[in-house]
Design a protein that fits this description.
heterodimer; A: alpha+beta; Sulfite Oxidase, Chain A, domain 2; seven-stranded mixed sheet; five-stranded mixed sheet; globular; B: mainly alpha; 10 helices
């Protein structure tokens, strides 16, 4: 391994241009897909595939809902991931996620709603307003990164499917396929990965369905082709590679809560005053190459107290962790 | 043909020294960008984990010396044991320094809180503190001065190794496969001592045997 590492003195503000890191092989695959789509004569698909091959989303930044901190580097965002479906080390997903086939992809939307069915992700995306938002990702392991996501508000999608009055919660599921996700052969967690939100959390304007990062299609290790990002909650709420969205009446049992109910709850709101049983949540280490860690105090609701605190008024956040 | 003394002095001991120092040199090289040591996007936690794991590896290797000697009859491997043990202490200390300095920026208040409030850090700290007298008495002079008490003191290595593996196990989020391997190896190394020490002695006594090799071995055992 003689690849020269960037020296540690580079501040994260000096973002590596993603062009340098865009996977050439994937670009060629996409170009091939574009050719295949042309053969089928599906103009809309051709357009989408071409856009993907060009590797860019036309997504204007939503500055009002973005933080102004400098984003982490592309290789930090795509090389340091928790995605146990591809292994439990932070570098495993980037190394192993090549087996995932994010296209074509379909999404089942059902349960307590009027418009149910299985939908082609491309069709969904063609109707959704894509935008870029810079959010801080605060992991329950007490580190954080700043990431420029591309996505659409989950509320936009929910609206189109007309949830009924019985839809109190939304349950999300990751793909279950041991061929594409070899980590699902282990028994480390109950597969498939499940997450849930209360319906008012799911329809909150900050809640984002993400399809890209840095203006490009989501790399597999980041949860391609569709993932959830809830910026005021710990990172594990951000379920990846979603194949099912279901409106339900009962509170879903999310995977980490099932795995260890004493340490991980349903809400998982970022809260510096409620420690993890084994470590403090009062501060967080900023990811990014620096040899002496830069830390920052963790903010209530990850800095979104003004927008979301009212969702939890009257609730004991120590019990509902 | 060099004597055993010469071989240890000029070949084996320097080799063990280099092997023990290599992980630290590798990390330093990576930290300053001289080599690609794969420290990744979160070099601080990577350095903390590598130091801790190297300390555990060396503890287990140190504990493997006695069984190795008794199984193979290579009585002279004992000569590298103290160096292995001292390196285990050095890496445990680096592990703590990396956490206290690189991660916490020398904020003694939050580190003190962690040590008191987080059980897995408490037991890790206990293990490190217990290693201090062992490292401090690892010179030839201290060995001579303490005589038999040296052996008694250095049996602290057993609870230290148990605390160390427990500390590793406890900080893992979900995937316990790796700490489980450490625990199994430790169980074999400690179990071997129990079997070849008290158990065999008692069996020998029960059988009324007068002079088997077991009691002699047990006395040599450290």
């Amino acid at each position: 391994m003689s690849r020269k590492r960037p020296t540690i003195a580079i501040p994260p503000s000096e973002i590596t241009p993603p062009e340098l890191f865009f996977d050439r092989r994937r670009a060629m695959q996409l170009a091939f897909a574009a050719g295949a789509a042309a053969g089928l004569g599906r103009a809309d698909r051709l357009f989408a595939a071409e856009a993907a091959a060009a590797g860019r989303f036309k997504a204007p930044r939503n500055a009002a809902l973005s933080i102004s901190d400098p984003p982490n580097k592309w290789e930090e965002v795509t090389g340091y991931n928790n995605f146990y479906e591809f292994g439990t080390d932070k570098t495993d997903p980037a190394a192993n996620a090549g087996t995932l086939k994010p296209s074509p992809w379909s999404l089942t939307i059902d349960g307590e709603c009027e418009v149910k069915g299985r939908f082609d992700l491309e069709d969904i995306l063609s109707k959704m307003p894509l935008e870029e938002r810079v959010y801080r990702l605060r992991c329950v392991e007490a580190w954080s990164m700043v990431i420029p996501w591309v996505g659409f508000p989950l509320a936009e999608l929910i609206k189109r499917h007309k949830p009924t009055s019985k839809a109190k919660y939304v349950e999300f599921k990751t793909l279950l396929d041991t061929k594409q996700m070899p980590g699902e052969r282990t028994r480390i967690l109950d597969w498939p990965y499940i997450e849930g939100l209360r319906i008012d959390e799911a329809t909150h304007p900050l809640t984002l369905m993400v399809v890209g990062v840095y203006g490009r299609m989501l790399p597999n290790q980041n949860g391609a082709p569709l993932r959830l990002v809830v910026p005021w909650k710990y990172g594990f709420k951000g379920i990846k590679s979603i194949v099912s969205i279901r409106f339900v009446e009962q509170q879903p049992r999310n995977t980490w809560q099932v795995a260890n109910p004493g340490e991980y709850g349903f809400y998982a709101n970022v809260n510096p005053k409620v420690d993890h049983p084994r470590w403090s949540q009062a501060s967080e280490r900023l990811i990014g190459g620096s040899l002496i860690a830069r830390r920052r105090p963790t903010e209530m609701f990850n800095g979104y107290a003004e927008q979301v605190a009212s969702l939890y008024s009257g609730m004991d956040l120590r019990r509902n962790f | 043909m060099p004597t055993v003394d010469q071989r240890y002095r000029w070949i084996y001991k320097p080799l063990v020294f280099v092997a023990c120092a290599a992980p630290a040199a590798y990390m330093l090289g990576g930290a300053f960008g001289v080599i690609d040591a794969h420290l990744g996007a979160d070099p601080v936690s990577e350095i903390i984990h590598r130091c801790g794991k190297t300390a555990l590896n060396l503890l287990l290797i140190t504990l493997a010396v006695t069984p190795l000697r008794q199984i193979t009859g290579w009585s002279h491997v004992l000569r590298v044991r103290r160096m292995l043990g001292v390196f285990a202490f050095v890496y445990a200390l680096l592990h703590f320094v990396a956490y206290f300095w690189l991660d916490r920026g020398l904020d003694w208040r939050t580190v003190g809180e962690d040590i008191l409030k987080r059980p897995y850090i408490t037991i890790g700290m206990l293990a490190l503190l217990a290693l201090v007298p062992l490292a401090a008495t690892s010179t030839n002079r201290m060995m001579r001065r303490l005589k038999r008490r040296w052996q008694t003191l250095h049996r602290l290595i057993y609870p230290i190794a148990i605390l160390g593996v427990w500390h590793f196990w406890w900080q893992v989020k979900k995937d316990i496969r790796e700490p489980l391997i450490y625990a199994l190896i430790l169980a074999v190394l400690l179990g071997w001592r129990v079997w070849h020490g008290p158990v065999r002695r008692r069996l020998a006594r029960a059988a009324g045997a007068t002079s088997t090799s077991a009691p002699a071995t047990a006395r040599e055992r450290t």
